[in-house]
Small multidrug export protein (Desulforamulus profundi), 162 residues
Amino acid sequence: MIELLKGLPRELLVVVIATLPVVELRGSIPYAMGVLNMGSWQALGWSVLGNAIPALILLHFLGPMQRFLEKRLPVAQSWFTWLYGRSNERGQLISKYGPLGLFLFVAMPAPGTGAWTGCIVAFLLGLCPKKALAAVLAGVLLAGVIVTLAVSGTLAAFRHFV
């Protein structure tokens, strides 16, 4: 996929990579710094911007999309009921601490804990969209700083030994 996007300006390429589910800024920052030789602040800024885009879209459209699917597909309502139940079981940290728990969840730079998952979980747990957005964006920023520091240290150590 990166090959398809190579014609884009490098800043836009980083933004696009950061918008992708699963990859998010956990992939865009190492790519920007390691492959594109982008500075750490620049990689962080473009990656946070890219990772914020899906959060804005998801938190705005998940509710209307659910209502649309439930009207059009009879099985959707039972699937959403199952999904809500499973989310309540699995989302104990977020349920217990609300936006703070969501912030901690998104800020943890581990697989499956980014803005995409955070927005979906916030929606399923019924968190206020404005508070959820603030928590997700703050979590994205902290995760970005953590990833940037880790990549900077890794690149510095690698360059020292090469």
Observations:
- Residues 8-154 form one domain.
- The mean pLDDT is 87.
- Residues 15 and 49 are 7 Å apart (CA to CA).
- The two ends are 29 Å apart (CA to CA).
